[in-house]
Amino acid sequence: MRRVVFNQKGGVGKSTIVCNLAAISASEGIRTLVIDLDAQANSSQYLLGSQIGEASPTAAGFFETALTFSFRPVEVTSFIHPTPFENLDVMPAHADLDTLHGKLESRYKIYKLRDALNELDMYDAIYIDTPPALNFYTRSALIAAERCLIPFDCDDFSRRALYTLMENVKEIQQDHNDALEVEGIVINQFQPRASLPQKLVDELVSEGLPVLASRLSSSVKIRESHQQAKPLIHLEPGHKLSQEYRALHRELAEEGETT
């Protein structure tokens, strides 16, 4: 299973969702990989902490190699590193991803990630974190993935952006990857006692959009999790938000079994 977490809007929790779902997957004995394609490297920092400086080569090296070796798949395992968590590995991001972007786009290397992952059979679950833009790396991820998960903050700006995002995914499906499925919209930083968030969610559901039943609450605990470079399942497994992530992971697994 290859899952991309995508939203063109920044600050909606893509990296947090990627790392916490991946950590739960790994904790259940599933061999799991996180691929970080955002030059800000938030997922990489979250999973590696102080070890991030030792994790080389990175995703930037993978794509730089793709520019050189045009006629055979890149050996992707060279760019993957273990995290401190059992069964969980990462291909870390690097700031050089921004520098390479123009070259990769002009030379149409959009299928290189898909081709490399097609040769990779050692993982049962792959989570791909993307930049907050529909750029080369995001398109590469959507082409390489089987499922797309969309984080959503409960505000009107996010709602307006959501329709454009869904159209962009549909275009990728039609032009590049007809196997890609929109797995669902994740309601993040949800405040159940506030009327506006619930109203927005109800409206999305009434429009027939694939809103997932699981909700992720807003909590300062997630900041502690980032600061300590420990996904919630390892920092405080009994916390309410940890249980919400477990519920989301379970919902996705159950949906996967029925499709």
Output the keywords.
259 residues; alpha/beta; Rossmann fold; 8-stranded mixed β-sheet; 11 helices; globular
The CATH architecture term is 3-Layer(aba) Sandwich
What count of helical segments does DSSP give? 11
- Unreliable stretches, pLDDT < 50, 5 or more residues? none
SS-based class = alpha/beta
Overall mean pLDDT: 92
Which strand-content bin applies to the residues?
15-25%
Report on the biggest sheet: 8 strands, mixed
List SSEs in N-to-C order: EHEHHEEHHEHEHEHEHHH
> Would you identify the CATH H-level superfamily?
P-loop containing nucleotide triphosphate hydrolases
Query: What percent of residues adopt helix (DSSP H or I)?
Result: 40-55%
Number of strands: 8
The name CATH uses for the topology is: Rossmann fold
Q: Report the CATH C-level class.
A: Alpha Beta
Description:
By secondary structure, the chain is of the alpha/beta class. The chain has one domain (2-258): Rossmann fold (3-Layer(aba) Sandwich). The protein has helices at 14-27, 42-48, 59-68, 96-106, 112-118, 136-144, 156-175, 195-206, 221-227, 232-235, 240-258, and strands at 2-5, 32-36, 81-82, 88-91, 125-129, 147-153, 181-190, 211-217. The protein has an 8-stranded mixed beta sheet, sandwiched between helices. Helix 1 runs parallel beside helix 2.
SSE layout:
Layout: E1 2-5, H1 14-27, E2 32-36, H2 42-48, H3 59-68, E3 81-82, E4 88-91, H4 96-106, H5 112-118, E5 125-129, H6 136-144, E6 147-153, H7 156-175, E7 181-190, H8 195-206, E8 211-217, H9 221-227, H10 232-235, H11 240-258
Parallel strand pairs: 1-5, 1-6, 2-4, 2-5, 6-7, 7-8
Antiparallel strand pairs: 3-4
